Please model this.
Amino acid sequence: MSIVKSNPYMQSHHQGFGISPYMQELMVYAGHLDCYERGNEILQHFLSIEVSPAQIYRVTNAVSESLSLEDDSTERTLPPVSSTEVLYAGVDGSMISTREEGWKEVKLARLFRSSDCMNPNTNVSYLSQSQYIAHFGNSKDFCSKAEDVIDSYGQLKNRLVFLTDGATWIKNWIEDSYSDAYAILDYFHACEHLHNFVDSCFKEDTVSGQIWFKEQKELLYESQVEQVITNIAATKAKEADKDKLINYYQNNKDRMDYKTYRNIGCGIIGSGSIESAHRTVIQKRMKLSGQHWSRAGTQNMLRLRVIAMNRQWNKVISILQKPNRLAA
Model:
């Protein structure tokens, strides 16, 4: 590593790397934002200090491993849910490429209160604050972590609303652990299945297909799932295609009462919040071109991404302020 010895960022060497705690923090921050090569470019541009990508990698991983010994990933970061509010929990999985096992799923949850949603169900909606929970591993361990956070809000019952797709493990978890909560199948996800059906059923008459699709969407929006099922059965589509879509709606109809859901909390019926979380927490850093992660590397990077997104970067600073905390 080529450095200017008089540079103040490199003074007060600690933690076994011969690099100041503050410089280590900058390296970790750069490393968690983008690939390690880009981290080197960023530091060189702003500080006129050349740090090798390999060194950024080593420091970033060492700091995250130290955080794993102390970090309470189930610590609640949002204020309490008031008696007039609803707690939303978006839950989904995102695939990343690993060296040992190929494509594997990272499970992710995003929690927010109804009061945190600004301009809901519009093109300019956003969340003023939220909390992320992530886990690279089995669903049982993820659910345990998520439950620790959710349960810290007390017995919310029907003031707890889950936003999900049709994943069986998520559905079973909610039914087993939060039977009084609302579980919403993402409306747009339900419509996507319908759209795929229309593409195959109305190939020779796309105009009629578009009209039929719009009618079924409106029925779903008004919680008329049984009518949509009847209408699907009446089409001239292949029996296999009809059965597939009908079974999907039959299995999820208890989570498709969109007319009711629009009158709960801030009326959200889509899972856009968790889809956005996939991009900002995981994909933006961990699905870059050509990346293949080790299991340990996945855990370490995921931990830093969640800490940063939860506005808990002070945990990194705290670790680096402890003398002899990291090994070379």
